[in-house]
Amino acid sequence: MGIVKVLEVIASSEKSIEDAIQNAVDEISKTVHNIDSVYVKDIKAHVKEGKVTSFGCVCKVSFRVDHTKNA
């Protein structure tokens, strides 16, 4: 039986919500392997003088736990 863990992270981007999601995955991938999916829990945009200046999202990133042991 496999185990899946979930990390909740907040990510942002000045380009797009898609870029914010990719930023979350890129950052988590530095220390976590076997990422399966990203569930976007919340999305927001920051506005300044009537223009969207950045995008943010709260993501739940799921990954499989690796049970291999080092011999």
Shape: elongated
How confident is the prediction overall: mean pLDDT?
92
Catalogue the unreliable spans: none
Number of domains: 1
- Cα distance, first to last residue? 22 Å
Number of helices: 1
> How do the SSEs run, as a string of H and E?
EHEE
Helix-strand category: alpha+beta
Identify the CATH class: Alpha Beta
Give a written overview of the molecule:
This protein is an alpha+beta fold. It has a single domain (4-64), classed as Flavin-binding protein dodecin (Dodecin subunit-like), CATH 3.30.1660.10. The chain has 1 helix and 3 strands; from the N terminus they run βαββ. A 3-stranded antiparallel β-sheet has the order 1-3-2, with helices on one face. A hairpin with a 2-residue loop joins strand 2 and strand 3.
Provide a quick synopsis of the model.
The chain has one helix at 17-29, and strands at residues 4-13, 35-48, 51-64. A three-stranded antiparallel beta sheet has the order 1-3-2, covered by helices on one side.
Highlighted features:
three-stranded antiparallel sheet, 71 residues, alpha+beta, Dodecin subunit-like
List the helices and strands and how they pair.
Layout: E1 4-13, H1 17-29, E2 35-48, E3 51-64
Antiparallel strand pairs: 1-3, 2-3
